[in-house]
Amino acid sequence: MEKELFEKIKNRFSDSKIELLNNTGIAKIYIESKDIKKILGFVSTYFEEKPFLETIIARDIDDSFSVSYIFREKTGDILTFETETNKKKPELDSIASTWPGAEVLEREIQELFGIVFDGKEYTSNMFLADQWVGKPMKKDYVFPEDFKGIEHRRNPLKKEHERP
To answer: What predicted TM-score, i.e. pTM, was given to this entire model?
Structure first.
């Protein structure tokens, strides 16, 4: 399914950089960040039924953030689309106009990584306390020793809890 969809996307959006990645055993379609909204908009109409948005995952990798959009098609097939955004100005187009449930996932990613969707910078947090400073899922984040008098330091794992 991925290869067929990939070819349709590549033909329809020939001016966009699109790659089929399969370096983890799971096929992913890589899309440049500037094209994510229009290509995922096409995907929403490609199938008989719009695929279900399972989740959006962000990862901090070196000089950029990688963002994966994971969908489930009516047949149960999983579709994964990946893009990247620069860490210096992390912005992506929102897909919430097509998949309304994406807004919560995008807000979570903004709160934890600092990626802004459609220029909407939310000022209140959903998961962290409103007074929380920084983006805790970024690699360069330094956790405070305490927050409102609650210590964050943890003792090292006991020997019997270590992974082999």
So the answer is: 0.84
Tell me what percent of the chain is helix, strand and coil, each rounded to the nearest 5.
25, 25, 50
CA 129, distance to chain mean position in Å, is 22
pLDDT at 71: 95
Domain boundaries along the sequence of the chain? 2-141
Q: Which CATH architecture has domain 2-141?
A: 2-Layer Sandwich (3.30)
Tell me how long the chain is. Answer: 164
Give kind and range of the element (H or E) at residue 41: helix 36-46
User: In the prediction, which pLDDT does 27 show?
Assistant: 73
Element at 78 (helix H, strand E): strand 78-86
